[in-house]
């Protein structure tokens, strides 16, 4: 039934082959390793060494450095020598694209080389070519000829290799046969792995990165299944989401992709790619990994599944009936928790994206306006703005005067014994133990209910997934809101954990809404509580967007930068963001170089790509439309391009 991870209910790491990388082994029972990549020009030895040291001190166990040509590959020796001289033995990884000769030099110097099967022996021409079996085989023979020398050098020098597929840089050959799919990504790596195994070389780590978290998760799962099916070795997995972006968006997106796989015991090393200094990446990776150190001991047992109705390799949203604006084809909804506030005023709703203008005496909703507020035992005393609805505890609802405008939240027993219900929409709070045959029968008869699923289990995502599976296996199409509560954690941990738990379910098409509850957080003064509510509201929208289930803001697919980067990515991303972040649902790729940028920005609607010093190429989708725009005019020209497509809207300053 399940062939992509050891268990869907119990935390177990996938048993992988141990690969030695310069004395820091990965895979097997070794800890999940943290790694990152330098951004300094590889020819700048001193700068690279200093950056490596900052990265090591931030927690990097491996460091990757780009080697675009032979001269950079050769300079890896100087960087390595300088690091060793200063007492740092961190294994180095050379990052190779397009240049087998640089790979062959680097493999003699560093502890691991990374090759991208999409461009190791192929130059991308964006051609669709019809291959028959013979011509496809001829291509494979050509690749073998280019690739085998590197494999032999690695074998001879004890150098490990990462076969790192990128969704955005699949070869024309793979695209022509398999399309832009997880299967294409997997097959791209398998072609190279088969060659390695034929040569008796097994020191391999594999990655399946994409900027689209659904594609990324599906590709890793499919890879595991295909390796097993084909009797290939269980190679360790390097996890990463490419071009995740910066700040909270980058962290949320990384957690959704990487965390989802870690929950199922997949992953032996992690690289979080942020458009920030590389030393900012290791702590995020470590925080994601640390969550699993004691997971197996702390988790409460979950009974095994008898049948799994979820397709792990393709996105299908769970079928649900529509109850008001929940479930069916509605986007997943955001419920904000205001239950610890008493005496809520108009202005307080700003924390959930509904801004009250005194001047006009009306509310404006921004892009992150919550759909529901949960007020517990403290119903709101005024009329809510359009587009916002209220959920209150059952007793408070029974006592309220205006019952039609608010909806009750009942415990399961309250629901089963309730004489009074709302005519259109009732919420039921349920944990796995509450999903009894009696509740299932009642749900079948009632088209007004929405479940709010929650858990106290440390192994939270799999337990909530089990709730969904139980409902699906019993034919229940009631919409479900995923409720998570976190106490005693830092805000950074809450961000990563919520993104993992909720994102992991959304990726599998589960969940019609999200409620990040404040109930377990320490008591706070009202202003701080509003600040927390604001953060959790933004986080909820961020998770829905990162899991690609609800687009509420502009998406930036920015590369993490490396030695090839032609402009200051952080500064440029901030500048582009400042001018465009009110454009709902537009995806903008911001890539540091023309070599990999266009391929790696994947499904962006527009691309801003460095082509030379102070020169930018602008793309519409995969097509270059302005080849060499001076950097100081490039953002204006980008906006012009968006305007030409009628996708530009003027930013509106909301009044308070
Ligand atoms: S797109 Fe960015 S990270 Fe990728 S090679 Fe170019 S500069 Fe480096």
Automatic annotation (TrEMBL):
One of its GO terms (molecular function) is 4-hydroxy-3-methylbut-2-en-1-yl diphosphate synthase activity (ferredoxin). This is 4-hydroxy-3-methylbut-2-en-1-yl diphosphate synthase (flavodoxin). It is an enzyme of class 1 (oxidoreductase). SUPFAM superfamilies: Dihydropteroate synthetase-like, Nitrite and sulphite reductase 4Fe-4S domain-like. Pathway: Isoprenoid biosynthesis; isopentenyl diphosphate biosynthesis via DXP pathway; isopentenyl diphosphate from 1-deoxy-D-xylulose 5-phosphate: step 5/6. Binds 1 [4Fe-4S] cluster. Converts 2C-methyl-D-erythritol 2,4-cyclodiphosphate (ME-2,4cPP) into 1-hydroxy-2-methyl-2-(E)-butenyl 4-diphosphate. InterPro entries: Dihydropteroate_synth-like_sf, IspG_atypical, IspG_bac-typ, IspG_C, IspG_TIM, NO2/SO3_Rdtase_4Fe4S_sf. It comes from Pontibacter anaerobius.
